[in-house]
Amino acid sequence: MWATTFAFQPWHSVVELKRYMIRFMxxxxxxxxxxxxxxxxxxxxxxxxxxxxxxxxxxxxDFNMKCTVTDLDFKDSSDITVTKIHYVKEGAAGTIExxxxxxxxxxxxxxTEGYSLGSMTKAPSLNGKGSSWKLWDRIAAKKPGLxxxxxxxxxxxxxxxxxxxxxxxxxxxxxxxEAFSRNKAGTGSLVTFKESSxxxxxxxxxxxxxxxxxxxxxCSGATASSRTIPATT
Length: 233
Description:
By secondary structure, the chain is an alpha+beta fold. Helices cover 26% and strands 17% of the residues. The protein has helices at residues 2-5, 14-24, 44-58, 131-142, 150-153, 156-159, 172-181, and strands spanning 67-74, 82-89, 92-97, 163-168, 191-192, 201-204, 218-223. The chain is globular and about 60 Å long.
């Protein structure tokens, strides 16, 4: 249960396992039911991202979309201070000069970076490292103190993962899973099929189109492998 909840594989870092044990030790007495897990009723994009974006936009935040940050320049000192952002927007390169007091928050890698979509007849393709991993590689190579990205992004075969969604035409599967897990859709955590070669796990989410009617289509999401975490100690 611990391995599938946090997507650990036998070759992943024991240091990462230690971090999660310290963070979630209080959940051990009920890890078999995951009663302490708090989930958003809808998917994270609709429940968190869109409301936050709306709030920040209303407060004057400028979201510059379709930009890829390719590099950062740093101040020549022992501190980690960014002086310039290099980016590409719709094929055109550009830079942003930073002033004293500006704050830069960097996403150095992502478990969904470099993703691709499959279909009913075609499996998703493996795209390799995405732009945020490449950014981390680039800045870590020229600025000490920014970690070791190769522990996270060089073993793609050992850290790739895949998820899928199943749409049901009635509530039968949801009714059975809710009775089995004792968790209403959208409130519980994942359920793992221990005998699955992939340790496949499923999550019952509330479908935005069916929140008010169980007779409408219901969707359950599932994941069938691991996320990107350190593969070395």
